[in-house]
Amino acid sequence: MSTYDALLLVSFGGPEGPEDVIPFLENVTRGRNIPRSRLEAVGEHYHLFGGVSPINQQCRDLKAAIEADFAAHGVGVPVYWGNRNWEPYLTDTVRQMKADGIRRAAAFVTSAYSGYSCCRQYLDDIDRARAEVPDAPEIDKLRIYYNHPGFVEPFIEATRAALDELPEDLRDGAHLVFSAHSVPLAQPGQELYTAELNDISALVAERAAPGHPWELVFQSRSGPPSQPWLEPDIGDHLEKLHATGVRAVVNVPVGFVSDHMEVKYDLDVEATGLAARLGLAFRRAATPGTHPRFVSMIRELFQERAAGAPDRPALGALGPRPDACRADHCRRGTA
Ligand SMILES: CC1=C(CCC(=O)O)c2cc3nc(cc4[nH]c(cc5[nH]c(cc1n2)c(C)c5CCC(=O)O)c(CCC(=O)O)c4C)C(CCC(=O)O)=C3C
Ligand SMILES: [Fe+2]
Fold this sequence. Notes:
Elements: E1 6-11, H1 21-29, H2 36-48, H3 55-72, E2 79-83, H4 90-99, E3 104-109, H5 116-131, E4 138-141, H6 149-165, H7 168-171, E5 175-181, H8 190-208, E6 214-219, H9 234-243, E7 248-252, H10 261-264, H11 266-278, E8 281-284, H12 292-307, H13 327-330
Parallel strand pairs: 1-2, 1-3, 3-4, 5-6, 5-7, 7-8
Helix pairs in contact: 3-12, 4-5, 6-8, 6-12, 9-11
C-alpha cells in the first residue's frame, strides 16, 4: 500500500557543546542581515546551557518515539533525521538514505506553520540536499499540521495544566498569552503564518479556558531595529498587561514544537524573569515534544499521504492545508 519507503525527520539543528556555538550561529545567519551584537547575545544564551541546545536530544527522542509508534502499528519503514544548521546535516542523511536504497520518502518538519521560515526554507533545504546527492530519493514534505488535532490537543491539555498551577485566587483573571517566533513583516507568507497562529490561539483558548482573555504576541526578534518585524513583543505585552492591572498569565508557545532554546531561554529565563520583576504570576505551557498524540499524528499524516486519503483532519476555521504549499505563500522573497 505504502508509496513511501522511509520517513525523514527534518529539523533546525543546534550546537552540542561550547565550541559548536559560533559555527552554528554562523550557519544560521549566513547571508542574513543579523547584527553581530545580536549573535553575541544569542551565543551567551547557549553558553548559559553549557553550549548545548536542547533541540538535538528532542529530535533523538522524537525519532525514537516515532520508531516505536510505527512498529506498534505495523508501519515497517525506517526513520531518518537531518538538520538545516548542524549535524546530522540533511545532505549527509539524504546520502545515507540513497546508500540504503531508499527511493521515496515523506518528510516531517519540526515546524507546524506556513511561510518562508517555517515551510519554504525547509523545502529549499531538502532541494539543496537532494541536488548534492546523485540520483537522490524523492522527498515529499507532509502537509502543514498546525491545525491537526494531534498538534492542537497537546496544547489544550498543557494550557489547562498551566492554568491549574496558578495560585487559585488569581486563576479566574488570568490572561492567555500565545507566543510565536517573530519574522520580518517583509517575509513571504507572513500574513498566512499570522492567520494560522490566530486560528490555533482562538481554538486553544476556547477549548482550554473559555472566557479568559487571550492575545497573540511574538518573541525572539533578531533583525536590525530599522526593519519591521511582527509585534507586539512578549516583554512589552507583559508590561502592558501589568500596567492595566492583570495579575496572572499563562504563556502558550504555540509557535513551537518542542522546548528548544527559544522556549528555554526567551520564555523560561527572559519572560519568566520579567514577570517575576513585575510581580505577575506566570506559567508557561508545555510544547508537544514527544506527547503520544503528537507522535501518532506523524503516523497519521504519513499514512494519509501514502494512501492519498480524502479525510484530512483539521480543527479551527481555516481547514486542512494542501499537500503542496502554494507558491504565493511560501516562496522566497527578495524583500
Ligand atoms: C519562524 C521561526 C521559527 C519557528 C519555526 C521552526 O521551528 O523552524 C524558528 C525556530 C528556531 N530558531 C532557532 C534558532 C535561531 N533562529 C535565528 C534567527 C531567526 N529565526 C527566525 C524565524 C524562526 N526561527 C528568523 C526570521 C531569524 C532571523 C534570521 C533568518 O531569517 O534566518 C537564530 C540566529 C540568532 C538570532 O537572531 O536569534 C538562531 C540561533 C531554533 C533552534 C533553537 C535551539 O537551538 O534550540 C529554532 C527551532
Ligand atoms: Fe529562529
